[in-house]
Amino acid sequence: MQTQLNPYISFPGTAREAMEYYQRVFGGELELNTFGEFGNDDPALADKIMHGVLRTRNGFTLMGADTAPGMEHQPGTNIAISLSGDDAEELHGYWGKLADGGTVSVPMEKQMWGDEFGMCVDRYGIGWLVNITAPQP
Fold it and tell me: Fewer CB atoms inside 10 A, N or C side of the chain?
């Protein structure tokens, strides 16, 4: 898989509604995963979106999620850039450079969904999400 760079939008509890709207606007296939699907048993979060991705026929990819527990939602700062793919060496290189001089909020490590993932804000205040897809057997 080629490395992808695309926007990632945080929503204040309206991710499902917003992502379905963008699907109506742009078409394409929408995948939504809830916090409950990944083991969060808090009834207030069970149906909230932990990760959503819209992929369109003409190559657009838009990601979004509800603001995670403990994180503040601030309009204007609710967009990050996502790097994802399966080239671990390339993505670890990007991660190291982006995190250098910035602030790491989620260390790059294996996550409950099986991929390596990390979040940081670079030295210029831009949020980055880096996901390295786990090798498939």
Answer: C
pLDDT at 39: 86
Neighbouring CB atoms inside 10 A of 8's CB total: 23
Cα gap 130→121, rounded to integer Å: 11
Neighbours of 70 (CB within 10 A): 5
* Helix%, strand%, coil% for the chain, nearest 5: 20, 40, 40
Show the tokens assigned to 77. 């700062």
**137 domain-assigned:** no
CA distances from 69 to 10, 28, 44, 60 (A): 12, 29, 10, 28
The string of pLDDT tens digits covering residues 56-108 is: 887 889 999 998 777 777 776 778 888 889 999 989 998 998 899 999 999 99
Other Cβ atoms less than 10 A from the Cβ of 125: the count is: 9
- Per the structure block, which two tokens stand in for 29? 């296939």
pTM: 0.68
Q: Tell me the C-alpha distance between 84 and 62, whole Å.
A: 12
- What is the domain range of residue 31? 4-132
Contact 105, 121 (CB under 8 A): yes
The domain that holds 55 is classified in CATH as 3.10.180.10
